[in-house]
Structures are given as C-alpha cells and as structure tokens.
Amino acid sequence: MKFLIFCSILISNFLFSQIKLTYGNDIEIYFLGKEISQSELLSGKAEYNFKIKNNTSYSLLISKFGFEKQNYVLNNKEVIFPERTFLSGYPAELEKEECYENIFIIKPNSEIEIKNLDIFQINANYKLEPEQKYILVASSNYKPSFAKLNLIGCEKYIKELEEKNYRFTNFSIFAEIPLIK
Question: Please, what is the end-to-end C-alpha distance for the chain in angstroms?
Fold first, then answer.
C-alpha cells in the first residue's frame, strides 16, 4: 500500500511539474519546472530543462537562440513595468563547435530533453515583492529566418543539415509561468 502511495505521488509530481509552451501539432515544447527566478535570469546562471517532442515524419532543427521573444510580467492580471531595462547586444559569431552545441536535431516522432533554450529572457529588472505573486508571460515566435540570423558562423553547418533534409520550422510559444525573485 505504501508503495502505491509513493508511486502515485511520484507520478503526479512528474505530470504536474511540466508546462506545455507550444500549441501546434508538429512540435511540442515543455518547460520541465514550476517557476522562473528573476535573479537567475539576470545573473545568467539560469539552468532550465525543456522537453521537445517532434510529431512529424521528418527531422527538425531547433536553435537555442532562435526565439523572437516578447515576454512581460503580470501581477494581479496587470502588466507591471520594470524598474530598469537593459539593452540586448548583437549575436556573436560562433565557432564550429558552438554550432553543434546550439543547434539540436530532433529525429522524426521522437523527443529529447535539453537545457537552456533562450525562451524566458527578460531585459529588465522588476521590483518583486515577496508577498505578491508574479507571472512571466512567455510569448515567442520561432522562425527559421530569425534562428539563422542568430547563428552567425554556422551557415556552412546549417546548409549541410538542410541538404540532408533536416528542417527548421515555424511555431509559437505562449505560457504563463510563476516568477519569483
């Protein structure tokens, strides 16, 4: 009996600790966590896990930095404004090894787990009060043209993959995720 209770708790924790980010049929992306930390995002030390599921009959390419983000923060269903905003820089030219690290190949009808997709970026510091609840609204479009633009130095590798019929695809992300200080 104790074993059954333990298994039930374990399964329910697994099922409820992932948040679906996409709403298309071809690709599903899940955030394998419960909340986002503003301080981790701003320090560059955030390490979040994701599951990507390819529901197509062809291999997909996903770039870590291919997300055109329009994220914002809510408190009591109201958009809050940051104390300070930061400018984003331009993408750096990547070395060949970095191309392999930043472009993921998802085989047909399979799934992979990866770390640190650049989905939750916020270019601002928000004053988060401990007694309040905040939501990070992650809204992003993934477009092949934007993904390739942010992969400077990977043109030859991308061309080789596309010649093997690997494809980038278009999809959108929208999710509301608890944000903590």
Answer: 40
